Amino acid sequence: MRPDITPPVTTQELASAVQEPLGFDDEGKRQTSNEELADQVSTILRVDHDRAAFIVAESERLYVNRMRERFSKLRVSERLKRTNPFLLRIRGAETVRDWAVIQVQSALYASEEEAVGHLLEAIIKACFPGASEPALPDDFDFESIESSEVIHGYQVKMSWDCMPMSSRKNLSNTIVRVREQYRSQGKTFVGYFAPCYGRARTTKPPGQEYITLASKEFWQQVGGGETDFDVKVGEVCALLCSEFRSEVLDTLVPDLLDRLTHAAHPEIGNRDGQIDYAKLFRRVNR
Fold first, then answer.
1. Sign (positive/negative) of CA torsion 212, 215, 216, 220?
2. In the chain, where do the E strands start and end?
3. Cβ atoms of 240 and 45 closer than 8 Å
């Protein structure tokens, strides 16, 4: 049976249908307390309980709350403006509901990747031996004081290919500047680019001022020399996020699909709930 796609009667009702926060019972499906999660994280990563509790709290702030906020504030006008009508047609979207499904899928994947990137950064800072906030924070996520005279700075990215040429040049220029500042203090500075996955070798090509770390080598440093520490971090991410992800798919996504379909119908649909592509193109390019 098709969902009810009767459009809201008034502009005010339309705005309300799009902007009203989604209802969600935070504890309704919660199987494990934060304290229990911290115990598990402590065991998996071999960190003390305080650091494990910090990681759990950050997972809630950076993943759970960020995802909930994104799905609560996803407005139809923004999604329509960002719709690629050419690609939508190539993908065979026929109904307004098809459009809503594609929008929610893309929002879910993009939001989740961003949230997990921030979570990994928090885990890295909590686990990397001697990690601290950079004294000279330009372009670096954290630094490690190797000795009274040597300091290492790290820029972390999800993937090795998240570094366009312009960013590489900027990072090299920053390292030259930071190196000079530390040199004036009698210290040596070494800059690193650390991709969380996808980099097989550690390299430093000519003209590049930073060292690009192999992903496995970087995670081994994060884990204090422990082999396959990246695998353990993956286990922790699944532990902390998969339960909420299931709730997103079971609760937030169906509700959001209904609301988007309902709200977008008068904007881009015909009487039968099919996409009117002439209306869509005019709406997108308005």
1. positive
2. 131-132, 142-145, 150-159, 188-197, 211-212
3. no
**pLDDT, tens digit, 9 for 90 and up, residues 126-169:** 999 999 998 876 778 999 999 989 999 999 998 877 666 567 78
Strands 150-159, 188-197: pairing is: parallel
Q: Is the pTM of this model over 0.85?
A: no
Q: Answer yes or no: are the C-beta atoms of 96 and 269 closer than 8 Å.
A: yes
Question: Could you write out the DSSP letters of every residue in 70-97?
Answer: HHHS--HHHHHHT--HHHHHHTT--BHH
CB–CB of 51/127 below 8 Å? Answer: yes
Q: How far is CA 37 from CA 58, 145, 241, 248, 281, in A?
A: 12, 31, 11, 19, 48
Q: Helix count (H) and strand count (E) of the chain? A: 12, 5
3-state secondary structure of 193: strand
Q: Which residue bears the tokens 């070798």?
A: 201
Between CA 192 and CA 208 the distance in angstroms is 11
